[in-house]
Amino acid sequence: MGKAKGRMDEAILVCVYYGPNGERLIRRGHKMATIMDCPLYILTIDPLPYDEFDAEKSEYIEKWKELAKELDVEDFIILDNEKRPVAKAIKEVAHKHNITQIIIGQTAQSRWEEITKGSFMNVLLREITFVDFHVVSVSRSIRDEIEGMFEKGVRAYLVEDGDGFRISFTLSKEARFEGIFFKEIGTDFNNGIFKFMNNNKMCQVHITDDRVTPDTQFVCKTAQ
User: Fold this and answer.
1) Separation between Cα atoms, residue 28 and residue 22, nearest integer Å
2) Enclosing H/E stretch for 58
3) Which of 32, 206, 202 is closest to 118 using CA atoms?
4) What are the pLDDT digits (tens) for 72-126?
5) DSSP assignment, residue 184?
6) Which pLDDT value is given to residue 135?
């Protein structure tokens, strides 16, 4: 795959994850590589082994492979069963292929994660030096689909109150959890979703009239 390029002092790496924005990132990278006449690489990383990918992931992989062939990219790299932090895996690939430009996508989720976990971009900048980064915003249609139900997130706290929790926007000694509250659009009350970190896991609960909805269980996923 790929052929000799005119400028071997430059090389572009596009990092994609599952979702409709992947093709857009790849085409952006191809446009840059064409202008610069340099090699283009595509990288996707997953903690699961390749043979355990579900149907949706496998479909994205096949689409990206076809696109990589169509655009004559240098290499399409899959790091499956990858247990290292994502930034370190990207660093290894970047050094191996002498990458000078890296393209990554920014989603609505990454913006609230930046507040609760710290900026992923800052981690990349510390890990990978002498590389230019290009952060491409998710397309408006996708962003509207994700954010259309909630207002912009604001910092908030869960405070123990009787047999449950209520949301507060002021830090106090009674606060048990700090996170981001996403208020439902079109409501005068504090109804929405509260997202926070607990024991290195991303958690969320539903809020109804300032309180954690009765019988709601904390839904948590391990942070990667």
Assistant:
1) 10
2) helix 55-70
3) 202
4) 999 999 999 999 888 899 999 999 999 999 998 865 444 445 544 556 777 888 8
5) B
6) 83
Q: How far apart are CA 15 and CA 68, in angstroms?
A: 13
Provide the token pair at 138. 């998710």
Alpha helices in 97-203 (DSSP H): 108-117, 120-127, 140-147
Whole-angstrom distance, CA of residue 146 vs CA of residue 153:
13
Q: Which two tokens stand for residue 9?
A: 């002092």
pLDDT digits (tens, 9 = 90+) for 11-38: 999 999 877 678 889 999 999 999 999 9
Query: 76 exposed, middle or buried (CB, 10 Å; 0-12, 13-18, 19+)?
Result: buried
> Using CA atoms, how far apart are residues 196 and 102, in angstroms rounded to an integer?
29
Report residue 169 as tokens.
């926007």
For residue 194, give Cα distances in angstroms to 28, 116, 166.
Answer: 34, 12, 11
- What's 142's DSSP letter? H
* 181 token code pair: 């509250």
The pLDDT of residue 186: 76
Q: What is the pLDDT of residues 126-143, one digit of tens each?
A: 888 889 998 876 554 444
Asked if 167 and 210 count as a contact pair (C-beta separation under 8 A), the reply is yes
Residue 4: per-residue pLDDT:
53
